[in-house]
Write a structure and sequence with these properties.
Layout: H1 3-10, H2 14-34, H3 42-87
Length: about 90
């Protein structure tokens, strides 16, 4: 293959393609590391990530439920009082 065919096959100059791939790999690596993934045991890391996301969703639902109950203690009686007060007209 000539240099022109290699560049066309790779999507640009081989050196610049290599530089872009290195930079993109570092960025993706940082993101995956922030998610707790480890390249040495990727399957265990993915399993741990899914388990943590699953647990987090239940914690978020529990918090949402508590906020609902806390707000409902005030909102529902006030709404009921306003309804009773308006029905007297």
């Amino acid at each position: 293959m000539s240099d022109n065919q290699v560049a066309r096959w790779m999507g640009g100059s081989p050196v610049w393609v290599l530089v872009r791939l290195i930079l993109l790999s570092v960025v993706v690596g940082v993101i995956l590391s922030a998610l707790g993934l480890d390249p040495l045991n990727i399957l265990q890391s993915i399993e741990r990530l899914v388990r943590n996301l699953f647990n987090f969703s239940f914690e978020a639902f529990e918090r949402l439920w508590r906020y609902f109950l806390l707000g409902a203690v005030i909102v529902i009686p006030l709404w009921l009082i306003m309804r009773v007060a308006r029905s007297g007209h």
